[in-house]
Amino acid sequence: MPDYQIAPSILSADFARLGEEVDNVLAAGADIVHFDVMDNHYVPNLTIGPLVCEALRKHGIEAPIDVHLMVKPVDRIIPDFASAGASYITFHPEASEHIDRSLSLIRENGCRSGLVFNPATPLNYLEHVLDKVDMVLLMSVNPGFGGQSFIPATLAKLRAARQLIDSSGYDIRLEIDGGVKVDNIAEIAAAGADTFVSGSGIFGCARPEDPHGYDNILQQMRDQLALADSA
Questions:
Q1: Full-prediction pTM beyond 0.85?
Q2: What DSSP line would sit under the chain, residue for residue?
């Protein structure tokens, strides 16, 4: 069975009790904490910065933190998130003047690096930097807002990305972000993804008064991933 990793996006969490929310979702079996960083410039929304990442580390979060930068330019903020405790830092090729340099900067600051591809962004960029990439993130919605529906055409793009990664021989995770839920995670896994970002599909499906809500949602996702692997 592939090393499937589930990455709840804190964009959909209750920010008034963020430390508790992250503690609970990790205790329920999540693997990675996903940060959606938006600048109201590259995307039409404004979210969180390095201080939130640092605060979660000080709170005691030890799980990998996956920082998805939807900002332009990216180079200025990469060292800040690295210092704040990021594990992965991914960015969009359109947001960097020098993609190779930005990827190198991430690794030089002690983090794993990644490229993010919007629904209409071709994978061509990837072919030239596979040796500098630890994660490929495909957006299955247009970036900027949580709670959007999965774009089905992403499945073909996932299959193409999986083929490119497998033929490269490099150890690269293939992540998907946007509209991932219990009812489609198996199909997404079958197309080649091994890392699954879900915001409203996790945080939006567990009632605050239910102490086992996250356990139930994550177990349902794990069950679906097991079905995908046995198909």
A1: yes
A2: ----EEEEBGGGS-GGGHHHHHHHHHHTT---EEEEEEBSSSSS-B---HHHHHHHHHHT--S-EEEEEE-SS-TTTHHHHHHHT-SEEEE-GGG-S-HHHHHHHHHHTT-EEEEEE-TT--GGGGGG-GGG-SEEEEESS-TT-SSPPP-TTHHHHHHHHHHHHHHHT---EEEEESS--TTTHHHHHHTT--EEEESTTTGGGS-TT-TTHHHHHHHHHHHHHHHHHH-
Lowest mean pLDDT among 60-69, 123-132, 187-196, 199-208: 199-208
Q: Are 78 and 57 in contact (CB under 8 A)?
A: no
Query: Which CATH number belongs to the domain containing residue 119 in this structure?
Result: 3.20.20.70
Whether the CB-CB separation of 174 and 195 falls below 8 Å is answered with yes
Which domain does 140 fall in, by range? 5-230
Question: Which residues are part of the catalytic machinery?
Answer: 36, 177
Q: Which two tokens stand for residue 180?
A: 């991932």
Q: Please state, in angstroms and rounded to a whole number, the distance separating the CA atoms of residues 7 and 94.
A: 24
Residue 212: the pLDDT is 72
Among 121, 173, 172, CA closest to 143: 121
